[in-house]
Amino acid sequence: MDVEKLNHLSDAEFIELLGGIYEHSPWVAEQVVHQRPFKSFSALVSSMKAAVESSDEKTKIELLKAHPEFAGKAAMDGELTEASTQEQGSLSLNSLPAAQHKKMQQFNRRFMDKFGFPGIVAVRLQNSVDGIFTLFEQRLENSIEQETHAAIEQVHLIARCRLEDLFDV
């Protein structure tokens, strides 16, 4: 895919193609479809990010809640999106040794209890599961406002990675 081809898709095709870039949140693609033509890949990324940033806090929280827990029930039941499956698989989160799996479940529970949404990290930009554990330990010290901001930034990184895959960037 390239931006010129994207600009010539029907609205429905555009939304179908980009509706999953932000996890289970096609509303992002729906908000930017009428901003075409995009002059560049960067312009598309910026428009999608701006759509999220301009949304209200409730919508942002719903966006965060749309993300799966790491090695959580959805992953174990094979219910992740294809993109999430690949992302979690990049660090073998779907087959963690028992001790790491237990630790991940504890982090999942702590994040949900404290913030009401899962811990979110752009896994593909991490080198190790231990790196995720370190980030989670640090971010559990955040206030709800700080963590919402940190999680939204991670969501943007995830979206950018997904767009880069789609556009072979």
Which second-level CATH architecture of the largest domain applies?
Orthogonal Bundle
Q: By CATH's scheme, which homologous superfamily of the largest domain applies?
A: Oxo-4-hydroxy-4-carboxy-5-ureidoimidazoline decarboxylase
CATH class of the largest domain: Mainly Alpha
Quote the CATH topology of the largest domain.
Answer: UraD-like
Polypeptide structure, described:
The protein is mainly alpha-helical. The protein has two domains: 3-55; 62-167, Oxo-4-hydroxy-4-carboxy-5-ureidoimidazoline decarboxylase (UraD-like, Orthogonal Bundle). The chain has helices at 3-7, 11-18, 27-32, 41-53, 57-65, 73-76, 82-89, 98-115, 129-139, 144-167. The longest helix has 24 residues, at 144-167. It starts with a helix and ends with a helix.
